[in-house]
Amino acid sequence: MGKVTVLDHPVIKHKISILRDKNTGSNEFRSIIREITILLAYEASKDFTVEEYDLNTPICATKGYRLSGKKLGIIPILRAGLGMVDGLIEVFPAARIGHIGMYRDEESLKPVEYYLKIPKDSNKRDMLVIDPMLATGGSACDAIQRLKEKGCTSLKLLNIIAAPEGIKKVQKEHPDVDIYIAQLDEKLNKDGYIVPGLGDAGDRLFGTK
Ligand code: URA
């Protein structure tokens, strides 16, 4: 079963509270999503490998380290996932960025993909799938499924806030995918919103409420 890592830290608690506040405007909301994503990126890359190399400081010769593992891919799930891209490329500027957009057909309830473009060599990359809210887990599972069908073999999921229902679904359907979240919330309400949550992350990021 995929591992779940929750960022348990006073700074995260502080920032999540500002995100939750309905009076926080889009500009501050975007900045904090970016800041928390940077902290998630550090946590999700703890198992990356490094190689040693020789370098000279102004004082002496010493050993340096550089990341030596697979190249990275970042896949925001449209549209709210876009809000996490800036934070990730700050930490991993060389990462390639793909996009996936899906919705559920209201009659068939089947996922319909309306956009998918990912790096050509995604099968050789570590792929970080990003979406601020892991609610029912439906779109995350559908997106991961499509990425696997496209050849991706190394996937991690990064969310700002998750509900237990979403985590359970991803763990069941994609036991090979580890999940990194900043905050685990209580539950979903009858409309599928996370409680206490922060409302609709896309609307709050882009001011479309
Ligand atoms: N998506 C959101 O943006 N918010 C929720 O609470 C659930 C899903």
TrEMBL record:
Catalysis performed (reactions): UMP + diphosphate = 5-phospho-alpha-D-ribose 1-diphosphate + uracil
How is the protein's activity regulated, according to its record? Answer: Allosterically activated by GTP.
Give a Gene Ontology cellular component term annotated to this protein.
cytoplasm
Gene3D superfamilies assigned: 3.40.50.2020
InterPro entries for this protein: PRTase-like, PRTase_dom, Upp_B, UPRT, UPRTase/APRTase
Keyword Nucleotide-binding included in the entry's annotation: yes
Tell me the route in metabolism or biology where this protein functions. Answer: Pyrimidine metabolism; UMP biosynthesis via salvage pathway; UMP from uracil: step 1/1
* Residue ranges occupied by any Phosphoribosyltransferase domain in the UniProt entry: 6-208
* Residues at which uracil binds: I194, G199, D200, A201
- Assigned keywords, A-Z: Allosteric enzyme, Glycosyltransferase, GTP-binding, Magnesium, Nucleotide-binding, Transferase
Q: Which cofactor does it need?
A: Mg(2+)
Question: Does the keyword Hydrolase feature in the UniProt annotation?
Answer: no
Q: What is its EC number?
A: 2.4.2.9
- Which positions does UniProt annotate for 5-phospho-alpha-D-ribose 1-diphosphate binding? R79, R104, D131, P132, M133, L134, A135, T136, G137, G138, S139, D200
Q: How is the cofactor bound?
A: Binds 1 Mg(2+) ion per subunit. The magnesium is bound as Mg-PRPP.
Q: One GO MF term, please?
A: magnesium ion binding
One of the GO biological process terms? UMP salvage
The residues forming a coiled coil are none
Similarity comment: Belongs to the UPRTase family.
What this chain does, per the entry, is described as:
Catalyzes the conversion of uracil and 5-phospho-alpha-D-ribose 1-diphosphate (PRPP) to UMP and diphosphate.
- What name does this protein carry? Uracil phosphoribosyltransferase
